[in-house]
Amino acid sequence: MNGNPSPAPEDFAGVQALYDETMADNARVHDLIYPHVFGPDQYIGQFSDNSANELRLMGSLMQLAPGSRVLDLGCGRGLVAAFLAREMEWSVTGIDLSLVSVAAGRDRDHDVELIAGNVYEHAFPGPFDGIYSTGAACHFDAARLFARARALLRPGGRLAIFERTRLGDIDADDWNRLTRDWKCPHVYTTQEYGELLAVAGFRVRHVVDTTERFRLWQERSVDARKALREEIVAATSQDYFETSLALAAYEHDVSKKGLLGYAAVIAEAVS
């Protein structure tokens, strides 16, 4: 694939450990940082690199009627699920591998169902009208994920992902950091997403490139971490601060090279 490796095997034990152990303090840190990144009216508790307006746009482009049954794949604390349930008047179910995140979401008593589990293994009752993922699809092999999504959707149902995209050949060191360190099998181009969606029985309806805003969010994320260092360390630890800053900084470095972008891809189940 244009000089970068083929997708690695999915590592769900690694994903769970990343969010339940290494980054277990993510929620507290995000609540400190991201009002400064997106703006206080645009941060609704999301872990993805998307403002509230970008999430609204994704929801509107899915073109699902009020009352639609929708699955949030990689829901975290369920704050995006609760937000879109209110904004779009959907009935949203969230699923996530992170026990810490799901437990925190249940403590907030959202008006959405939150499931701790693996989307490949959980038995859902009946088909969904829509499935979306904001910043979590990177942890999956896209071909396998899209096949599972198609099996869970009714004909005409919609699938949306908001995710990092590859814009060029990424060198080996950066590739390992973007994939191995984040427990991601691959970094796909939007073209590759489109091809894999077609194989799985989807037709792409919209592609929205948010790369320029993604780079702005990343720059602000790095700057905010540095400015809030004392608060972050007090809320977590020095080790967490350094890990969090390193993860944010090298992703920003790759995007500044013009090799990493962000996009929403919305597709319709057609066969």
Describe this structure in words.
With 271 residues, this protein is of the alpha/beta class. The chain is 47% helix and 20% strand. The chain contains eleven helices and seven strands. The chain has helices at residues 12-22, 26-38, 52-62, 79-88, 99-107, 142-152, 172-179, 190-200, 211-227, 229-235, 238-256, and strands at 69-73, 91-96, 113-116, 128-134, 153-166, 202-209, 260-269. Strands 3-2-1-4-5-7-6 form a seven-stranded mixed sheet. Helix 3 (52-62) packs across helix 4 (79-88). It is globular, with a radius of gyration of 17 Å.
Give, in order, the helices and strands: HHHEHEHEEHEHHEHHHE
> How many separate helices?
11
How far the N terminus sits from the C terminus, by CA atoms, comes to 27 Å
Helical fraction equals: 40-55%
Widest sheet: strand ordering: 3-2-1-4-5-7-6
The parts where pLDDT drops under 50 for at least 5 residues are none
Multimeric status of the protein: single chain
Number of strands: 7
